Amino acid sequence: MGRRGRKKQFWLTEQQAEDLAEKAKRACMTETDLIRLLLRGYVPPERPGTEFFKDMNRISEFAERLQTLSAVTSGVDAQKLLSSEAEAWRSFRLEMERKYLMPERRKSEWQ
């Protein structure tokens, strides 16, 4: 992203300001970041609940345990199997993060 050298200032009604603040809070970002994201054609998802993050941490723990097991296992085939399983868990975790946390690109005629 280039250097930001242009300042834009605009006025909102009280209700619009509250809406902007609430939407930024739900997306876990600043109001300015939310506006920049929207201008690029993305709509951020709302932050998932705490259960989502607990589950993501559990997935990471599974992958770490598998990685540890592969390091102490003596058979080459067993090490390869455990390493590939750990990588599969990591890939699954990344896929879930993309699905629930990444902004969605929206096509719009005015962009």
Question: Could you provide a short overview of the structure?
Answer:
This protein is mainly alpha-helical and 111 residues long. It has helices at 14-26, 31-39, 50-72, 76-101, and strands at 42-43, 104-105. A two-stranded antiparallel sheet has the order 1-2.
Characterization of the model:
The structure is a single chain. The chain has 111 residues and is mainly alpha-helical. Helices cover 64% and strands 4% of the residues. The chain contains four helices and two strands; from the N terminus they run H-H-E-H-H-E. A two-stranded antiparallel sheet has the order 1-2. Helix 3 packs antiparallel against helix 4 (76-101). The chain is elongated. The model has no long low-confidence stretch (mean pLDDT 83).
Task: Annotate the secondary structure layout.
Elements: H1 14-26, H2 31-39, E1 42-43, H3 50-72, H4 76-101, E2 104-105
Antiparallel strand pairs: 1-2
Helix pairs in contact: 3-4
Key descriptive features of the protein:
single chain; 111 residues; mainly alpha; two-stranded antiparallel ribbon; 64% helix; 4% strand
Specify the oligomeric state: single chain
Shape: elongated
Give the termini distance in whole angstroms.
18 Å
- Main pleated-sheet profile: 2 strands, antiparallel
